[in-house]
Amino acid sequence: MTAxxxxxxxxxxxxxxxxxxxxxxRLWGLGAxxxxxxEGSSFYFSxxxxxxxxxxxxxxxxxxYPLLLAAVTAFGRxxxxxxxxxxxxxxxxxxxxxxxxxxxxxPTAQSGQxxxxxxxxxxxxLVAFAPLAVWYSREARPYALLSLLTxxxxxxxxxxxxxxxxxxxxxxxxxxxxALGIEYGALAVVVGLNLFMLSGWPGRGATGGRAVSxxxxxxxxxxxxxxxxxxxxxxxxxxxxxxxxxxxxxxxVQAQGLGLDWTPELARRVILLAGAAAVALGVALAVGxxxxxxxxxxxxxxxxxxxxxxxxLALAVLGALPRLYTVKRHLNALLPFVSIAAAWALLRVPSxxxxxxxxxxxxxxxxxxxxxxxxxxxLFSAPRPAWPQVVATLAAxxxxxxxxxxxxxxxxxxxxxxxxxxxxxxxPTAWQPLRAHDLDAIGRAGAGQRVWLAGSVTPYRDLSQTLxxxxxxxxxxxxxxxxxxxxxxxxxxxxxxxxxxxxxxxLQWGLAIQSPLDVVxxxx
Length: 524
Description:
It is built from 23 helices and five strands. It is mostly helical.
């Protein structure tokens, strides 16, 4: 049975309303929260010379986002301005998710069926309200922009695959180059797109025959990746990625909390094996879809629909929790495609049925509402970074001649608010970053100096617990101000020796996390 055609005007109005709602969620109170340490690092990198960003930067991320932020700061340095590109990118990802979903699903439907239009709108609604997407659309980090650019790349790739032409090839390459220049997570989307093509999509109607189309597609992938690979080989990124440690440290700390005896080295191997296993599983699934009608039938079953809906809801809950940011940032680029897959599984209708059942329709209506509620709860309850309060407290409490030290990981965000404080003419005028490889530096203060230490407090980083034993033996904390995510401690000479305690293993691992102040890689 063939259903009535969808009214394009209704779809356009609904998509417009979703986009406006997404913009409101992303702009509301955008600058009310202080910058996170990672956002401070992004701003710090944006102030570096162009040559350093392009060829020498030791940060394990491509230079595209700092270059964009450097242009944005021409309009100001307020938190709202720094975060505005992410908010706009996250908003534009909503109609692009609709476009990608529609382009992917229309070739699999019978002529006149409405479900591809409905499923594309559902996918757009899921992205509009997903807490994960909302969060990273409100951060001065590259992840919302990565999501937008990978969606544009996939949309152009799907259009080109159906009807090869110079315009879509150029759009695919441009979006792909920009995405790869923003964040390495674009490579995961490139792999996923090629697995989707390997599965046999679009199945019918490809111009020029399957073999010719496959060869052209491979040539297009070579044009996409070759310039990026050449830049990568001649830049400092090889060394930066080799020195990257935060993901392994984070995973090892989480595993220790679960009672697993993991080390960062073991965690690094697990990450590599998990990536290889994911690619192998993706290849096996793509080949199965291409070769087996039984596999294709299983993918359209209600159990797959339930599993994908559960995955979207799990991502929503994960996104709403104020933790696990190292994991969530890598999932954000995949969220639109998981949403498209869930919408397809929920609303896809075989040619012999008039439409999806009432249970599926109810779930399709409920899911965006649940995600919207979670996003609102997240916005109202999310903890706010305390760095303006740290700086203001230090300015009020420190005396002339005090030695002020700041954890090197927090130095960029501290400098951002310190500069603002100094514009008011209050507080001491000098501070120094405390480097993990030279913690003894904090003990070189004069006998008459009081020593201040500011830094983040996380399960894997708290320099106040990893200070050298001789410093801890001679100086005692006389004042301590604590917030949820940071602490400010004053140390003074003590008449009685202080007991020295070994720091937890996780905090010792945290000392190996790469510093944003190491602009040029050691050994370069």
